[in-house]
Amino acid sequence: MPTDQPPEGAASADARPVLSFSAKRRGKAPSHLADLDLTERKRVLTEAGLPAFRADQLSRHYFRHFEADPAQMTDVPTSMVEDVRDTLMPSLVTAVRTLTADDGMTIKHLWQLYDGARVESVLMRYPNRTTLCISSQAGCGMACPFCATGQMGLTRNLSTAEIIEQVRLAAKACRDGELAGGPTRLTNIVFMGMGEPLANYRAITHSLRRMIDEPPAGFGLSARNITVSTVGLVPAIDKLAALGLPVTLAVSLHAPDDELRDELIPINSRWKVGELLDAARRYFVASGRRVSIEYALIKDMNDHPWRAQLLADELNARGKGWVHVNPIPLNPTPGSIWTASTARAQREFVDTLRRNGINTTIRDTRGSDIDGACGQLATTAAKEEGTTDE
Ligand code: SAH
Fold it and tell me: Which atom of ligand 1 is nearest to the CA of 146?
């Protein structure tokens, strides 16, 4: 059920008024502790005339206890609260809507940022992991025609702290038992919400550090449990490989041939399937992490057996056991001419890949009944509130 109230504990940090909505505004989010490493946090505090030792203390509150409101920190003197808020802990993210599905095992949030821009994140509990799907940009500039976010265009990049706030709020929701099944820990992160993460490279790599570094520098999540998903910005894939963090790379391929991929993924006009798969392979070699290939199965569009065979051939031509293919039935966006492949076509596609020795798992479609597909909740909310032209 849509609610207009933030869930308890989700965005209670502080409820300062959000600036008026201006989708085209491309300002910079206020600077926040989560933008900075520990040394930088100390420097900023010192420059503001606050004691440097507070950096560790505030960082522990934030990364260990998921607390972002200095007014709630009993060891921060009341007289210092406003200064701390202004220098390192402004409120960045406020819940606009909260939806649950899958008997409470999935929670989707629509967040409003300081300038009125909106992004989504989805928290999903599984038997042995809890995964958060996060946004890296408000909107997206990649214009993929089957993707709801792709239809919005790009509003702006998120700052590192705006990305990290999504993680903190999810970690807190897990701890506080907001998912069905009682309190748990956030274990996995996927950059599969709104936006193209590698088009916001700097903020993404900084946010990876904050996720991976041990408290009080960061959350101490395992790099192996973090997945960066991309349409295929080849130079950025190589840069990420050179960073040497063992995060998993997911490549949104959706077609094994340039003719079709040019249509489905406009950036394919810049980096072709062959170049992209070569870069994916280099990432595997550099990181030792098996690459995920994302493939939304669209009826009569990309689900032909010959395309499954071509995909297997392209992957096998570059080595064995280096990829895992994740077909996902298309989650049609409102007004889309495309629909999901039939169950039979899905089976045949998977069988062809497996027969050719390719690890393949159909990805689940958690939350599709709550506009789970990328960007759909933001679009629905904007329409209901009359903030789009449609
Ligand atoms: N920009 C990045 C990450 C965001 S999208 C990327 O493209 O990888 C996360 C995944 O959802 C991508 O694989 C994307 O292609 C897929 N996706 C987008 N819209 C979809 C839809 N309507 N149905 C199924 N998958 C979709």
Answer: 22
Residue nearest to atom 20 of ligand 1 (CA): 147
Q: Is the dihedral angle over the CA atoms 266, 243, 56, 48 positive or is it negative?
A: negative
What is the side-by-side strand order in the sheet with 188-191? 93-101, 106-113, 118-126, 129-133, 188-191, 226-230, 248-252, 291-297, 323-329, 359-360
Which amino acid, one-letter code, is at 161? A
374 Cβ inside 6 Å of ligand 1: yes
> How far apart are the C-alpha atoms of 315 and 39, rounded to whole Å?
44
Contact 179, 186 (CB under 8 A): no
pLDDT in tens, 134-172: 999 999 999 999 999 999 999 999 999 999 999 999 999
CA–CA dist 63, 69 (Å, integer): 12
Question: Is there an atom of ligand 1 within 6 Å of 296 CB?
Answer: yes
Q: How far apart are CA 92 and CA 154, in angstroms?
A: 19
Q: What are phi and psi of 378, to 5 degrees?
A: -60, -40
How many residues are there in the chain?
Answer: 390
* Atom number in ligand 1 closest to CA 193: 4
pTM confidence score = 0.90
Tens of pLDDT, residues 191-215: 999 999 999 999 999 999 999 999 9
* Separation between Cα atoms, residue 314 and residue 261, nearest integer Å: 14
CA of 363 to the centre of ligand 1 (A): 12
Ligand 1 atom at shortest distance from the alpha carbon of 251:
8
- Find the catalytic residue in 140, 147, 174, 374: 374
Strands 137-139 and 154-157: antiparallel
Classify residue 231 by its DSSP letter. Answer: S
Query: What are the backbone dihedrals phi and psi of residue 268, each rounded to the nearest 5 degrees, phi first?
Result: -65, -20
Ligand 1 mutation pick, 204, 229, 324, 364, max ligand atoms within 8 A of CB: 229
Q: What is the pLDDT of residues 244-278, one digit of tens each?
A: 999 999 999 999 999 999 999 999 999 999 999 99
Active site annotation includes 120: yes
Pairing of strands 248-252, 291-297: parallel
CB 196 within 8 A of CB 234: no
